[in-house]
Amino acid sequence: MGTLVYDSRLSIPVDDRTLAHLQVVILGKLRRREHFAFTATVDGREVGLWLGPSVALEFRYADRRRPAMNRAWLELLADVAASRDGLVIAPEPVEVPDGRSIPRRPAAPTRVPTAPTRQPRRAPLPDVA
């Protein structure tokens, strides 16, 4: 069981696998200098936090090995973090046996390729010396 430490004052226990996915999503948003809400359960109580680039965060892992990342879960958590309510820990999507994640939404319809259009040739730029 790992821990997310918020501003050196609040420790939120989170299992290592979940913590690794949260770290990727949280650090991605903070790199873009985004502020957002994060809601977690601590000692049976729901705690709402405001995260931003100026808040000190620490990700403490119980195990030295980093778990494999689930791309679908990262995308789900990023979508949730961008929502009006902010980041909450969503359940991990199921992975298929070959290691790929099951997509959360249907794939975009395939487009029938069309013949390429011919682009007009541009005149060369004059040499300026």
Question: Describe it for me?
Answer:
A 3-stranded antiparallel β-sheet has the order 2-1-5. With 129 residues, it is of the alpha+beta class. It has 2 helices and 6 strands, in the order E-E-H-E-E-E-H-E. Helix content is 21%, strand content 23%. A hairpin with a 2-residue loop joins strand 3 and strand 4. The protein has helices at 16-31, 71-81; strands spanning 2-6, 10-14, 36-42, 45-51, 57-60, 87-88.
Give the SSE layout:
Layout lengths: L1 E5 L3 E5 L1 H16 L4 E7 L2 E7 L5 E4 L10 H11 L5 E2 L41
Parallel strand pairs: 3-6
Antiparallel strand pairs: 1-2, 1-5, 3-4
Helix pairs in contact: 1-2
Structural class: alpha+beta
Global morphology = elongated
**E-strand count:** 6
Whole-number mean pLDDT = 82
Rg of Cα set: 22 Å
- Beta fraction of the residues? 15-25%
Strand order of the largest sheet: 2-1-5
Tally the helices: what do you get? 2
Helix proportion range:
10-25%
Please provide the ordered H/E string of secondary-structure elements: EEHEEEHE
Q: Flag low-confidence runs.
A: 102-110
Q: What's the main sheet like? A: 3 strands, antiparallel
The rounded distance between the terminal residues' Cα atoms is: 67 Å
Summarize this structure briefly.
The protein is α+β, with helices and mostly antiparallel strands. 21% of the residues lie in helices and 23% in strands. The N and C termini lie far apart (67 Å).
